[in-house]
Specification:
alpha/beta; Rossmann fold; six-stranded mixed β-sheet; 10 helices; binds adenosine-5'-triphosphate; binds magnesium ion
Length: 259
Amino acid sequence: MAGCITTKNLSATFGDIRAIEGISIEITANKVTALIGPSGCGKSTFLRCINRMHELVPGARTSGEIIWDGRDIYAPEVDATEVRRGIGMVFQRPNPFPLMSIADNVSAGLRLAGMRKNKAGIDEAVERSLKLAALWDEVKNKLDKPGGSLSGGQQQRLCIARALAVEPDIILMDEPCSALDPASTQKIEDTMDQLKDNYTIVIVTHNMQQAARVSDFTGFLLTRETGEPGRLIEYGPTSKIFTMPDHKETENYITGRFG
Ligand SMILES: Nc1ncnc2c1ncn2[C@@H]1O[C@H](COP(=O)(O)OP(=O)(O)OP(=O)(O)O)[C@@H](O)[C@H]1O
Ligand SMILES: [Mg+2]
């Protein structure tokens, strides 16, 4: 299935630094999966491996397998640009192009992904994506205004719209609400809930309530000793992870005893 992604024994390094090791996980299509764990345990690295952004860092390597839609995304014949189109990413800090118009911000990804469309096709993609990101009503009368003129929460939804414009299967969100106020956070969470009918979402969050609210499955990553790589300690339905985790370390983390 297009939105399903499986990693087998995935490890990633930055030069001599082992960031994550031996991560095997099956991410379910059309569900929200939350990744939690203390700072530095490799959550962002894991996301960046999944859409082949990790390799953009000089000296960074991965090993193991990542299977998306039946294919190993690191196989020699697979084009990294195509992987990044199908597996989009939204970052912690909203990063629209500040001087570019709202509409052009949304359609920017189409050009970068080499998806050629005529004016009507671009307009249609902009409207569809802004509606999906629950931003359309707020910006439909000012599509030519700069992306930087929006509030932080609106900018983050603009970035979600930009990620959606290229019609990905999977959206990776790395702490998408950590720079936002509660009302904007609520809007992003509502958006995620709507999106999961058609998309697979993986979200990294430090907010346990958010993980419990929005996700169907939760994975807990941990670096057991300083200098050790992060590992997946436990993974399962969110209701189970938050009520009867199998591992003491998971329980300690979610109850706020460390991290
Ligand atoms: N560009 C880099 N160069 C070298 N080491 C890095 C780089 N990025 C991350 N690391 C290291 O990889 C490990 C995992 O980092 P990562 O950013 O994935 O953690 P994280 O779980 O996302 O943390 P946080 O919750 O603080 O965002 C850490 O030891 C970190 O220092
Ligand atoms: Mg991170």
